[in-house]
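Researcher: Here's the sequence for the chain we discussed earlier.
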Amino acid sequence: MKTTYLLLAVLSCNIVLSQDYLDKQPENPEPGKCYAKCVTPDEFEEETIVVESIPSYNKLEIVPAVYKTVLSKVILKPSTKKFINVPAIYKTVVDTVWTKEPYHKITIEDAEFEFIDKEVEVLASRESWVAGEKDPDCPSIDPNDCRIFHYRKDPPVTRNIPVSKVKTAASTQKTKIRGNYKLVKRNVEVSPATTVFETIPAITEQISRKVVVTDEATRVTSVAAEHIDVTKRVLVKKGGMTAWRVVPCTIPKRIGVVPIYYSSGSAVLSQKSKRLIDKHIWTVLQSNSSSIVEIGSHTDSQGSANSNLKLSERRAKVVVDYLVKKGASSERLIAVGYGENKLLNECDDSKKCSNLKHKENRRTEFKVF
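Model: Thanks. This is the structure I predict for it:
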């Protein structure tokens, strides 16, 4: 695309470059041509006015405090108590300590028995009926009907059986067995340990000190206002400007500079990029005070178009900040973020490319005018 260069030419009148001059441009300019317009200055008259440079004010002065000297008793170390330990008092006694206590040994005496005969009933007394002879007067022909029965009662049958009975019951005998003992000397507390205290007096010192009699205060002093004479320029006649017109011109040469590159998603300048900026841009800005630099930053196609546009703007701004920090005027730097709109290769959203291919698009280009 061709570029139209506007040459701010000096004609036969005095030129005053105002903001209106810079904002208003010729309508429908033709590519490759230069345009100029003449601006007539405003006319002024001078008058003197009196300006109050310092208003009247109150000046405050400090009135020092007044002291008097007094003697005060200061306790350097307060009184305290010293505690003294009184040990316990003991006496020696002799105690018997049984190493083996005495006990009673028990002896058993078995029981004694004697044997006697004891009559034991081996067959109890019994009663029975015994069939006898036939009754001769019995009319029955059955002999069992006419039999005579005798009732008999037999005494019990006994035997003498030898048995034993306790003559002397079993018993025990106790015999006391002596134990072993030892005589031991030991200390018995007569009075327990106690503490007593004695008072240690305080340590004091007389110290001379200053006491405030009258506190520090302020005193108000009025100071008159001061004035100065100031020359004021008053607009008498408003200047104006003529219409734009075509003038002969020489198109300034544009200098291209090798671009700098970024890591993916980053807007951080590498040390290599800073060295290229120092060598090719900062040196031009120093050597030619009228030069202007366009800083055009780009991204690859990875990510959304909106985020890539913002990333390119950050990349352009970081270059501007770097140059301004070195001393360049921000008015001579034009930062432009193009996003992913000006790819140098085929790596758009429809293509799958390597990181090396995408890196060609992650760049900042410079145009020096």
